[in-house]
Automatic annotation (TrEMBL), chains A, B:
Classification via Pfam families: MiaE_2
Ferritin-like domain boundaries: 32-213
InterPro entries reported in the protein's UniProt record: Ferritin-like, Ferritin-like_SF, Ferritin_actino
Organism: Streptodolium elevatio
Protein name per the record: Ferritin-like fold-containing protein
Sequence segments annotated as region (Disordered): 1-25
First and last residue of the signal peptide: none
């Protein structure tokens, strides 16, 4: 389990240790605030993913498909539970930690409501993938407990073989769906980047953490840009796995 | 775990053992068909409960409330997983076992879409309660493996304290909601009975199992009536727990 408290971060005596360690750079209070923001956005992301996958399961063509998407939703909820417990173990109300991210994540889902089962599957796969990439980007900058949790959640992300099979065989049956789903994938990525940039612009501590810890003076737009490039490249690879141009 | 196969039920040599045991009365093939029907309706009931609770979680006034309802949904999905595994262990395709119950259960949910968060909570509580009563009615008539599974699922049904607290404090804040929710509870029960009677009328094997095993000659409408009376009385007690007239 990764629910232990982290007295190191809350220790006022450590406040002078600015920039002595790349992995824990910056004033501990600010670092802790950034970690809480990160866990907050992940937690709210997981519970909204749960809600949307559960909703998309209603469009399943068969009961087996419905159960497969519901199982993905349930996996996201269990991730949420772990993240919530970890936030609480830091002495922070999980709802408070999630609150700043409600609007951007709800906006993302409002702008990307799937019109049918296949769009829902592509969204589940692409969304899961972007979330996993994002986890990977930040895991290196976290304290050991938070890092262990993020890595555990990341390892548990799965069920993607089901989506790949379903999308590829739908394209085999009717090659025209590939064009529509490729457009859909581009729109998903565009909306994800647009909401991520909105969050980054508004949350300085979180942005600093993303670009390499709080030791970085100010907000490094270039490094943020490189991170988005890496995430975009990974998205392209995933679209290809589905048999889709990106 | 209760996922062992049951060669006893599939053994043609046992076909002559009609009525020799109250718990396994009737021709084993018919009894097995009835058990599969029962597990099928329970499994589809659980996965639709998952879907509806996940949908109702979107109406939650706070993130904590949303997480509480989502946790109820996830518990239902885990029940579904156990029931599905048990059906498969009997050599039956779970989707086939569920199929006859898709229309009546979907109709129930279509007729009882909650208009707001409180209606969703009352539906979750009342629906969970009716399902639990139904489990209790049938558990006695099942083979030991199926009975153990149903009892396990029943024990795991919970989270109701959250609903009771939320509904009672909403009534405290505004006593007028009690009248509206009481009407809603009556409508839920009416729809549940109406769909249950529809299922009972169409599924002879299942009905026979419900009224005391397949040894009962024909379809005992009087015993079925008594069962519905017991379930109605339990519903009245639950409504009172919520602070609602029934």
């Amino acid at each position: 389990m990764t629910e232990g408290t982290q007295p190191g971060n809350a220790d006022p005596a450590a406040d002078t240790a600015v920039g002595h360690d790349a992995a824990h750079a910056g004033p501990p209070e600010a670092a802790r605030a950034a970690v809480v923001e990160l866990l907050g956005v992940l937690a709210y992301g997981e519970i909204t993913a749960f809600e949307r996958l559960a909703e998309d399961a209603k469009m399943a063509p068969t009961l087996d498909d419905k159960a497969a998407l519901a199982a993905m939703a349930v996996a996201e909820f269990h991730h949420f539970e772990r993240l919530r417990a970890h936030i609480a173990s830091l002495g922070v109300d999980p709802a408070d930690a999630m609150e700043p991210f409600v609007t951007p994540l709800d906006e993302f889902h409002r702008h990307t409501a799937p019109a049918d089962w296949l769009e829902g599957l592509v969204k589940a796969y692409v969304g899961d993938g972007i979330a996993a990439d994002f986890y990977r980007e930040v895991a290196a900058h976290l304290d050991p407990d938070s890092r262990a949790l993020v890595e555990e959640v990341l390892r548990d992300t799965g069920h993607s073989a089901f989506v790949v099979d379903a999308v590829r065989s739908a394209i085999e049956r009717d090659p025209r769906v590939a064009g529509r789903l490729a457009l859909w994938g581009r729109r998903l990525m565009g909306e994800a980047l647009s909401q991520a940039q909105r969050v980054a612009a508004e949350r300085d501590a979180l942005s600093a953490l993303l670009v390499g810890g709080l030791a970085v003076p100010g907000f490094d737009l270039a490094e943020m840009g490189r991170m988005f490039t890496r995430i975009t490249e990974a998205h392209t690879a995933r679209m290809a796995t589905l048999g889709l141009a990106s």
